[in-house]
Write a structure and sequence with these properties.
eight-stranded mixed beta sheet
Length: 396
């Protein structure tokens, strides 16, 4: 019985520390022989390009990093054998229209397919079709909203809208044997995934998705088997050296091998380890932590109170890592805060910011974030204010 093998990798984009190797096309130096052999054994190879390929020096106006790679660095990616790239993510639009055009041209010239974005809101290409003989597999890409929304006259990504996405999955599944969703979202820097994420995965599977994989979190999460579907909550990085410090979360990732046949599919995760300039196959294949988390995750879904308490404690701890950023943004420009930041340790400064608000103020902030009406109102207020104070063209 003929099988179709897919290799799906996580976040990938050349960084200054390895531009030279990518531009030289040296896949062996970046990924090692065993990982290159694994990719070569597949019928199709897929990854997420976490940024754009452009030589533009004009990023869009946003909070947070703008990520790109020179167009010449595509060479090692081509030599690794990548056939398709998902581009519905949080950084693919960091260099606006020019970044979009340059990336499309670079991938087209290197015969690498792509999906998950488009030149305007009417032409977003959400999926790619893989055909192997009589077998048809569809790759579908959707992402959470950042500074990446398409407009009538501006490129952007396939944003997650539950009703529309589930309808599209339902329709596409009728046209193929297997449907794989690459979902770009979740909370960065945590092994845990929220209840909202789990609900979304379940609904996509209920509408026909056979495999759902979340990227973006830069951490390996858990796996789940739901009905006849397979979920991977957090694939971790493939080769994405944005942060120079190698934390335990960033030190590992998973490459997913999927073998499809007429009777179903088999999933095999392969653990990879980050190196100074790339990543290599983990010879030990120590997946014990991954399987332990997955077992705890299953207990959580079954209603185990102890598992729920442990999850909530860890999830709260991971979310707390964002507290200083969160409260600093709400405070805006504040001279007193600037002085405190100089005088206090990072931990002390974080506590200072938390204590700068009254309980009523915290309740008000939560209302604007939690309540759908006020969330929409708040976003409109900020959009109007930003338009009036805009000093930079945001449609480059």
């Amino acid at each position: 019985m003929k099988k179709t093998k897919l290799i799906i990798a996580g976040d990938l984009l050349p960084m200054p520390c390895n531009y030279d190797l990518f531009a030289a096309g040296d896949a062996q130096a970046l990924f090692g022989e065993k990982l290159c052999t694994l990719f070569a054994s597949a019928d199709f190879r897929v990854c997420n390009f976490e940024g754009c390929f452009t030589d533009s020096d004009c990023p869009i106006e946003k909070i947070g990093p703008s990520i790109k790679a020179p167009v010449t660095t595509i060479k090692a990616i081509k030599n690794l054998g990548i056939d398709y790239a998902s581009l519905g993510n949080t950084h693919s639009m960091d260099y606006g229209r020019q970044g979009f055009l340059d990336t499309c041209q670079t991938l087209d010239e290197n015969q690498i397919g792509y999906f998950g974005w488009g030149g305007d809101s009417a032409s977003v290409k959400s999926y790619a079709v893989l055909e192997d003989g009589d077998r048809k597999i569809i790759l579908y890409n959707t992402t959470e909203r950042f500074e990446n929304a398409p407009r009538e006259d501006y490129p952007g990504v396939n944003l997650y809208d539950e009703y529309r996405v589930c309808r599209e999955i339902q329709a596409l599944k009728k046209q193929c044997d297997y449907l794989i969703v690459l979902y770009h979202g979740g909370i960065e820097g945590t092994h845990c995934n929220s209840e909202k994420m789990r609900r979304r995965f379940h609904r996509m599977a209920d509408n026909g998705a056979d495999v759902v994989i979340s990227q973006h979190t830069h951490a390996v999460g858990e796996e789940e088997r739901y009905k006849n579907a397979y979920f991977l909550y957090g694939q971790g990085n493939f080769c994405f050296h944005f942060r120079p410090d190698v934390t335990p979360l960033l030190a590992e990732g998973l490459v997913l091998e999927l073998d499809f046949s007429d009777d179903g599919f088999r999933v095999k995760p392969h653990r990879i380890l980050r190196t100074e300039k790339g990543c290599v196959y983990d010879e030990q294949q120590d997946l014990s932590d991954f399987y332990a988390r997955s077992k705890t995750h299953d207990a959580l879904l079954s209603g185990d109170k102890q598992a729920k308490a442990a999850f909530e404690a860890q999830f709260g701890k991971d979310c707390a890592n964002w507290a200083t950023v969160f409260f600093s943004l709400f405070r805006g420009v504040n001279s007193e805060d600037a002085e405190k930041r100089k005088a206090l340790t990072p931990q002390e400064f974080g506590e200072y910011l938390k204590n700068a608000y009254t309980r009523q103020q915290l309740l008000g902030m939560q209302m604007f974030m939690r309540n759908e009406e006020f969330n929409e109102v708040g976003n409109q207020i900020l959009s109007d204010l930003l338009e009036k104070t805009d000093t930079k063209e945001n449609t480059q």
